[in-house]
Amino acid sequence: MSFVNCQGIIIIFMLTLGVGFCTSCNCTRVNRHLYLNCVQTNESEIHDCFIKNEGAIYVFVTNSSLTRIPKSIRYLHRVQYLDFSYNEITDIDNHTLNSLRSELQILVLSYNNVSILRNNTLDNLTSLQELYLDNNGLREIEANAINSNLKSLHYIQCSYNQLEILDIGLVWVPLLFNYTVNVSNNDISNFTNQKGIRVSDFKKFNDSLRVDLQSNNLTTIDANYLLRLGKVEQIWDLHNTGIGGINILFNHLVCDCVLFPFAVYINVFKFMDDLNPVYNMRCGYPTELRSIPISEVSINEFNCSVPENCPDHCLCTRTIAFDLITVVCDSDTLDTIPYVLPEGRYINLSVHSSNVRELSNRLYYQNVTNLDLSNSSISTVQADFLPNFERIGTIQIYDNALTMLPEDIQNMNLEKLSSLYLHGNPFQCDCHTHWLKAWLLKNKAKVPDLDQVLCESGPARGKPIIDALDSEFVCVGINLVLVLAISFGLLSVLVILVFTAYLFRVSIKVLLIANFKCFQCLRRKVSTDLPFDIFISYSSCDDTYVHDMLIPHLENDGFRLFTQDNFIPGIPITDNILKGIDSSFTTLIILSNKFLESDWCRYEFEQAYVKVLQEKERHLIILTLDKKLNKERIPKTLKTYMKMTNYINVSEKRYMSRLLLALPRIQIRIGDSERTPLLNDSAKVN
Ligand SMILES: *[C@@H]1O[C@H](CO)[C@@H](O)[C@H](O)[C@H]1NC(C)=O
Ligand SMILES: *[C@@H]1O[C@H](CO)[C@@H](O)[C@H](O)[C@H]1NC(C)=O
Ligand SMILES: *[C@@H]1O[C@H](CO)[C@@H](O)[C@H](O)[C@H]1NC(C)=O
Ligand SMILES: *[C@@H]1O[C@H](CO)[C@@H](O)[C@H](O)[C@H]1NC(C)=O
Ligand SMILES: *[C@@H]1O[C@H](CO)[C@@H](O)[C@H](O)[C@H]1NC(C)=O
Ligand SMILES: *[C@@H]1O[C@H](CO)[C@@H](O)[C@H](O)[C@H]1NC(C)=O
Ligand SMILES: *[C@@H]1O[C@H](CO)[C@@H](O)[C@H](O)[C@H]1NC(C)=O
Ligand SMILES: *[C@@H]1O[C@H](CO)[C@@H](O)[C@H](O)[C@H]1NC(C)=O
Ligand SMILES: *[C@@H]1O[C@H](CO)[C@@H](O)[C@H](O)[C@H]1NC(C)=O
Ligand SMILES: *[C@@H]1O[C@H](CO)[C@@H](O)[C@H](O)[C@H]1NC(C)=O
Ligand SMILES: *[C@@H]1O[C@H](CO)[C@@H](O)[C@H](O)[C@H]1NC(C)=O
Ligand SMILES: *[C@@H]1O[C@H](CO)[C@@H](O)[C@H](O)[C@H]1NC(C)=O
């Protein structure tokens, strides 16, 4: 083969130059271009070729079986474009390239076998603009391989390699802007920050930084980890770092609880840069979410399974957005309700087809919202079963073996309970259960299957309990009907009293608040040692109004504001909101239809109001931006709150004055320096 080529070369050289000797390299110069092509690498021929053509500007040494970059390139004094693609170069030592004069602008090493790019290998190439290292076996780019010596660099092509980790120091390089890093088609699954760079130090040059991470092995974007990694202190700083686009398509992202904080950020910031590919990423898993843009996934889909504390024969899932644990146990080997479940603010527990016979107290009941115990063997409900439910919504005990309920249930506050399903149980109807009829009638709104709750024994057998005649609840020998009737009468009176008092309480509140609009009496002065006066809870949907109108006004009045700008990155938005509420005297909630229509905005917000409404002593003010709010979308608790208090609408006359009036004067507890941000001269306001 080499002999044949040799002959060919000899013939051509004899014809063209009239010189006859056997070479393995073809060294051709065309004006400023130099083409060197070797059948077999011969360093001395390459050396000669470079020396003869030291003025060449575009140099191509391709398809020549080179295993390293020839040292003789140092003779190419004027080279600007150097192409070594399609060789077998495995290593780049730290001298060869650095010995080049600094005019080199483009270096092409595509289709070689380079496995590592070492620190400082390119340091002398101060004019290098583009570096092509695609289609190598690149496994590592050392953290200091690309550094600020490469002042002119604006494109690195590292596609089709085997990188598993991307050091963010490759992306954020001091002094470089308008810079693209292409690491698509690698195996990247995680990030490091070996040089300890601080991302916030990089200033914005409009859309000047692009990272192509397509087709890698990223399964999640752990936002909290990344913010910590890049030492990002203020979330908003990210928008000053000049990220024009991080293209992360075609990675199989798992849309689960780990991704959730990132999904929150996407939804908070998407509106700022709708076309940025990072905001248009899609889920890869789970299968039912595949290809759905993350921003369109409903917040209750970001679930994770929770193996810790999950009982045998059960499946436990956490829905991170609500801190909800869902436990499903479907097994006839289960003969008792689990004693321990994974912890969560809300717990849904389903135990079907089990051998559970008795219901009694469990510590976690306080957080249970839905309890499904249908289709089991329950025959006894202990008296301590019910009092522990603080967040209960639905209890399903249908299709079991209950003959009665504990009588104590009559004294319990079932306000929170929305539904209790009881059908399919063999209730006994006699003098001991007469109270049950009254109780069912009284609570008929809470027992949706009332008509199917039947008497299994006694004279009323087969009838719905509520339709059984009072005279049918008899025990042989003893008749307690009268006693029961009296107790029932007393109980009813009590219920009516409590109910009236409850109604009255609401009216009192409404009355008080409605009539105390007067200037002086509402101008409360409060003492506080909290670091902030007002926490503005608003959604990014209303960002413009808040930043342009509200904040300047309030700041002008001397209030110390806690807004999203004070959020600490690296901790969940929820925690940030709670921190805001905790460290501010007043929580000011900005409400709009845009806000109510977005799941995500509501999520941010609900985290806040749940706490505020729970802690009654908190000072809460609601400001609405739309004349008519879509009432259906206002969360229930909030609706009640809005009925009780006056909220302020921006379309009202002098709404800003009203708002300021509603805000108490703040006096900081430490020291004497009283601050009176409000209305020292009323003329000042609006
Ligand atoms: C050497 O390369 C040039 C350009 O690539 C080509 O035109 C020429 O025919 C080659 N010469 C030989 C002897 O192969
Ligand atoms: C390289 O080429 C030179 C001159 O063309 C020749 O003398 C030498 O033997 C060659 N070396 C190899 C290793 O082929
Ligand atoms: C290199 O050589 C192969 C055949 O050996 C050929 O297919 C390929 O096109 C060549 N590449 C370049 C850049 O010359
Ligand atoms: C170049 O690499 C050698 C080892 O391969 C090392 O000893 C030397 O310090 C390096 N020089 C620079 C400037 O990095
Ligand atoms: C890098 O450039 C400097 C100055 O231009 C020179 O002194 C040094 O020797 C070069 N480094 C190498 C490894 O050639
Ligand atoms: C590339 O280098 C690796 C070792 O780093 C070697 O195993 C492999 O055979 C090389 N591939 C080619 C095409 O030279
Ligand atoms: C490369 O540079 C980084 C950052 O300066 C350093 O942490 C690392 O140890 C260096 N690697 C080697 C092999 O010297
Ligand atoms: C950024 O670099 C690209 C080429 O990669 C160029 O087309 C563009 O004009 C540059 N933009 C700026 C602002 O320098
Ligand atoms: C990165 O490389 C891939 C594969 O070569 C290419 O399809 C993509 O367009 C490149 N991206 C950028 C931003 O240059
Ligand atoms: C991608 O990551 C998964 C685990 O995250 C790993 O099992 C798999 O081997 C990785 N694939 C490649 C090509 O590195
Ligand atoms: C990324 O690396 C960090 C630190 O080693 C680790 O804590 C984290 O779990 C990794 N993330 C993924 C998705 O592998
Ligand atoms: C119940 O919820 C609270 C938060 O509201 C949490 O602190 C507690 O650990 C939860 N308890 C259980 C048993 O899940």
UniProtKB/TrEMBL annotation:
<keyword id="KW-0732">Signal</keyword>
<keyword id="KW-0433">Leucine-rich repeat</keyword>
<feature type="transmembrane region" description="Helical">
    <location>
        <begin position="480"/>
        <end position="504"/>
    </location>
</feature>
<dbReference type="InterPro" id="IPR035897">
    <property type="entry name" value="Toll_tir_struct_dom_sf"/>
</dbReference>
<feature type="domain" description="TIR">
    <location>
        <begin position="530"/>
        <end position="686"/>
    </location>
</feature>
<dbReference type="InterPro" id="IPR000483">
    <property type="entry name" value="Cys-rich_flank_reg_C"/>
</dbReference>
<dbReference type="InterPro" id="IPR000157">
    <property type="entry name" value="TIR_dom"/>
</dbReference>
<dbReference type="InterPro" id="IPR003591">
    <property type="entry name" value="Leu-rich_rpt_typical-subtyp"/>
</dbReference>
<keyword id="KW-0677">Repeat</keyword>
<feature type="signal peptide">
    <location>
        <begin position="1"/>
        <end position="24"/>
    </location>
</feature>
<dbReference type="InterPro" id="IPR032675">
    <property type="entry name" value="LRR_dom_sf"/>
</dbReference>
<keyword id="KW-0675">Receptor</keyword>
<keyword id="KW-1133">Transmembrane helix</keyword>
<keyword id="KW-0325">Glycoprotein</keyword>
<keyword id="KW-0812">Transmembrane</keyword>
<keyword id="KW-0472">Membrane</keyword>
<dbReference type="InterPro" id="IPR001611">
    <property type="entry name" value="Leu-rich_rpt"/>
</dbReference>
<comment type="similarity">
    <text>Belongs to the Toll-like receptor family.</text>
</comment>
<dbReference type="GO" id="GO:0016020">
    <property type="term" value="C:membrane"/>
</dbReference>
<dbReference type="Pfam" id="PF13676">
    <property type="entry name" value="TIR_2"/>
</dbReference>
<protein>
    <recommendedName>
        <fullName>TIR domain-containing protein</fullName>
    </recommendedName>
</protein>
